[in-house]
Amino acid sequence: MLDLLITHATLPDGCQNMSIAVQDGRITEVTEGLQAPAHETVDAGGLLVSPPFVDAHFHMDSTLSYGQPRVNESGTLLEGIALWGELKPTLTHEAIVERALRYCDMAVARGLLAVRSHVDTSHESLLPVQALLDVKQRVAPYLDLQLVAFPQDGVLRAPGGLDNLKRALDMGVDVVGGIPHFERTMAQGAESVKILCELAAGRGKRVDMHCDESDDPLSRHVETLAFETQRLGLHGRVTGSHLTSMHSMDNYYVSKLIPLMAEADLGVVANPLINITLQGRHDTYPKRRGMTRVPELMAAGLTVAFGHDCVLDPWYSGGSGDMLEAAHMGLHVGQMTSQAAMRQCFDAVTVNPARLLGLEGYGIAPGCHADFVLLHARNPVEAIRLRAARLGVWRRGQRVASSPAPVAQLRLPGRPSSINFISTGSS
Ligand code: FE2
After folding, report:
1. 213 in active site
2. The whole model's pTM is what?
3. Spacing, Cα 305 to ligand 1 middle (Å)
4. Predicted pLDDT at 376
């Protein structure tokens, strides 16, 4: 007797009428039309069953702090950084834990079951680090939280920056972060990349840096990141987050840079919701979008993910833990409207970030964890279009969240009495 059987599922690759058999928290079989006795059977009715959403770039120490101690009046990156500086002295362990747990509740409801969160290591107290390590342990039964030691004030620029980051790693933080474009000079930024990559290589850690998050076409720390990745043999273990300066770089230089990044098997995270709002702010018209070159990087074979980055914090007053919102924005900002590119936008919030995080047992295949989401959509493109309702969310074969299908009641002469927005006919 199976623990769980999902029937009549459509998978992201387009396979239809699929059954997913679950035993002891793992998928044991994925077969067309399978019927077998199970403690619980769920008929997906032809709707999409996807592996869970994964967010490769988030800040859980600041999330849901919007309005504390005041709102960001201008909505700019610089006022956001100043605001975070005002908030930091007032932070308490309990308040960070409470906000982070509340965010994880939202995430699970959205089918988002793995998050890589940067955690600010700038202050010697490492208060946010201890708080998020506690959260990581508490949410482990239902959400994989991976932490990045993030020196918000600069690892060389801030006194004690490198020591604090090392202590965060000693405490159990998973990944080495960085912020080279915020160091005092280009030379110090490059030096920080070298130091941090060597630190990661020495400790067997992955790397994920905020890198070149500016509109400055000469901010080229990603080149150093690719070089150090290759020099230290860290292929496939290093991610460059944001890389917004690539939007503004000279095309000839980029034609050399992207192959270097591909040689190093660098991971890339674009954060479309945040990039489109924070970059290009010194422009009049035309205004740059600021998002890195996602389609070109994907075409070169790099693993590219879309991150959420911020939800209701000093930098961003929107968001609700919905990775389909990030995919929707990425699709539009990157003009990724071909059939293949729209599907790639779905991959950018599922399989691609799972690869960057190095998640074990991710996917809908025999042997994988029984983690998946039933979406109120017939295929990945429709899921993005509708930011589809998460009808059911399963973790290790247990249902952890449900939402009703959205149906609007209509009162129109000669028209149906309700509408549910989903496409009709075959997918
Ligand atoms: Fe970030």
Report:
1. yes
2. 0.97
3. 13
4. 98
Fold category of 2-51+363-422 in CATH: Urease, subunit C; domain 1 (2.30.40)
Residue-wise pLDDT for 24-51, tens only, equals 999 999 999 999 999 999 999 999 999 9
* Residue 118: strand pairing partners: 59, 148
User: CB within 8 A of 308, min separation 6: which ones?
Assistant: 55, 57, 58, 271, 273, 319, 321, 323, 325, 326
CATH number 1.10.260.30 is the correct assignment for the domain at 53-357: no
Distance 312 CA to ligand 1 centre (A): 13
| C-alpha 59 to ligand 1 mean position (Å) | 6
The active-site residue, picked from 213, 228, 325, 382, is 213
Enumerate residues with CB within 5 Å of ligand 1 (an ion): 309
Q: What are the tens digits of pLDDT across the range 162-211?
A: 999 999 999 999 999 999 999 999 999 999 999 999 999 999 999 999 99
Distance from residue 415's CA to the centre of ligand 1 (Å): 47
For the chain, which residues make up each domain, given as ranges? 2-51+363-422, 53-357
